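Worked example 3 (structure in, sequence out).
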């Protein structure tokens, strides 16, 4: 499995999903090895939960660290809060890939090729989990090593976004010719078809989460209800945090005692200034990154996902597992998880009034909200357990290796 990063380095939803899948596959006696760039002092061969992790490192490792720091600093300097959905493209990536990223993934390719070549008889499949530079690296490795390649498209328009790379059309053609695709959602599946990918080269497999373990009945304060959002502020405008904060001004009028908790990485001073200007600063908490969310899940009256674009949100799935009534935008992933007014509420993306109305409805109608929460948990347990998802991947692996029997 090729991934950009794994803990203890910061890792996104696609990478953490890959880690969960790896654990479930290991339980089913599939040997999983991760290959990723080494950064700083985190390099070489390590292990995570019994799975081997190769963090590619050489004399160029310092260069890796420099590029990573440069990119992170450029991203975190951004303190813009609001976006104009009428005049801007906010539901897909459009920024061209720059020279640092190109150098980065090319170095990683040669690192991986030299390293894996000696071990090419020890593995059967190359599996990349994002339709980004890791997809380009995966197909190159597949060609050199003569191995099947699986690429999971983890965003609504990941394949189209390859056009942001230099020679992007050529990359798209190579990836389309060489890889088998996993579409997490129906929208992703349809987007791949529109891009000219034959249906026999696409397999629909959603994300999954661990559903067993202790589950306690949530403790929710109806007097001072709490609304929860989980997502990185650094991923704006994708996460729609500006839409949520605008909607919260409307919610606050109906429920002045309610509070909004925002959990996730990012610089918050501009957001804090924004909510202060809106007059809701005392009701919004920016809590930063929190690893263990159990306490927040148990107390949340409503979970909200106001994203403009998603693949299939791990944060939404976890909230549904905890039987939290959810409001989400009607986009890829959320539409596959939520049946409107049955196990949650779907609202149009970038629609402040509709998002506010959905939150208000769940806060005002607690019996209906609780019932939606229960059905949400049933949906996750019955359809999205990670072990079931791992079984689907095993069938795909066997198919590509002609080992279906």
């Amino acid at each position: 499995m090729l991934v950009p990063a794994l803990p203890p380095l910061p890792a996104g939803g696609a990478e953490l999903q890959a880690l969960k899948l790896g654990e479930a596959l290991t339980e089913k006696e599939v040997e999983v090895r991760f290959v990723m760039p080494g950064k700083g002092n985190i390099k070489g061969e390590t292990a995570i939960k019994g799975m081997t992790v190769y963090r590619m490192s050489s004399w160029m490792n310092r260069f890796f660290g420099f590029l990573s720091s440069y990119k992170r600093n450029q991203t975190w300097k951004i303190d813009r809060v609001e976006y104009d959905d009428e005049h801007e493209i906010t539901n897909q990536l459009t920024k061209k890939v720059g020279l640092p990223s190109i150098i980065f993934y090319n170095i990683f390719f040669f690192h991986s090729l030299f390293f894996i070549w000696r071990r090419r008889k020890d593995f059967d499949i190359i599996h990349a989990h994002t339709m980004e530079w890791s997809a380009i690296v995966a197909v190159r490795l597949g060609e050199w090593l003569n191995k099947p390649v699986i690429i999971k498209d983890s965003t609504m328009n990941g394949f189209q976004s390859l056009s942001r790379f230099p020679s992007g059309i050529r990359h798209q053609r190579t990836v389309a010719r060489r890889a088998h695709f996993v579409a997490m959602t129906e929208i992703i599946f349809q987007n791949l078809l529109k891009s000219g990918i034959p249906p026999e080269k696409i397999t629909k497999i959603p994300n999954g989460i661990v559903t067993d373990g202790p589950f306690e009945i949530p403790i929710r304060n109806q007097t001072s209800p709490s609304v929860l959002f989980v997502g990185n502020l650094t991923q704006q405008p994708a996460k729609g945090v500006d839409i949520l904060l605008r909607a919260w001004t409307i919610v606050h009028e109906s429920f002045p005692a309610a509070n909004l908790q925002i959990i996730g990485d990012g610089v918050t001073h501009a957001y804090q200034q924004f909510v202060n200007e809106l007059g809701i600063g005392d009701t919004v908490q920016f809590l930063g990154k929190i690893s263990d969310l159990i306490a927040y899940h148990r107390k949340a009256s409503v979970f909200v996902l106001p994203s403009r674009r998603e693949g299939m949100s791990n944060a939404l799935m976890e909230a549904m597992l905890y039987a939290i009534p959810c409001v989400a935008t009607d986009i890829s992933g959320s539409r596959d998880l939520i049946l409107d007014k049955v196990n949650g509420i779907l609202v149009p993306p970038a629609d402040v009034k509709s998002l506010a109305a959905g939150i208000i409805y769940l806060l005002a109608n607690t019996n209906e909200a609780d019932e939606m929460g229960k059905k949400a948990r049933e949906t996750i347990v019955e359809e999205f357990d990670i072990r079931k998802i791992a079984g689907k991947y095993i069938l795909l692996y066997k198919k590509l290796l002609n080992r279906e029997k």
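Notes: The first helix runs from residue 13 to 27. The chain has two domains: 13-208+386-400, 226-383.
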